[in-house]
Write a structure and sequence with these properties.
Layout: E1 7-12, E2 15-27, E3 33-40, E4 46-53, H1 54-57, E5 62-64, E6 67-73, H2 103-107
Length: about 110
Amino acid sequence: MTTEKNLVLIYFEDTPVVFARVERILPDAKPDWYHITLLMLQVPLQAVTWILKDIYINGETFTMNGKQMRLEKVEAPVEPGPEGSENTGDEGNEKQDGNVISFADLKKD
């Protein structure tokens, strides 16, 4: 189910065209319809609000001006760990050499 802050890939006529982040989903006056605000992740950034049924927000094909459209929720791929390694819970205890640079301190100059 697609919810606020999810990333979606927008298809136009079965061709992926743009990624967007779901900013807000508000109910419409009609049952099962919603105002969905999308931040198009392109240059320049643009926010649009579409009125869609809940099934369309969750991936069913719909039409706009006679053209087929579809939203597909983007799931981040799970990256497998190195072979033979298991999660022992000790990863946070390893000492790492490195410096932490505070952006707040850099802005003071």
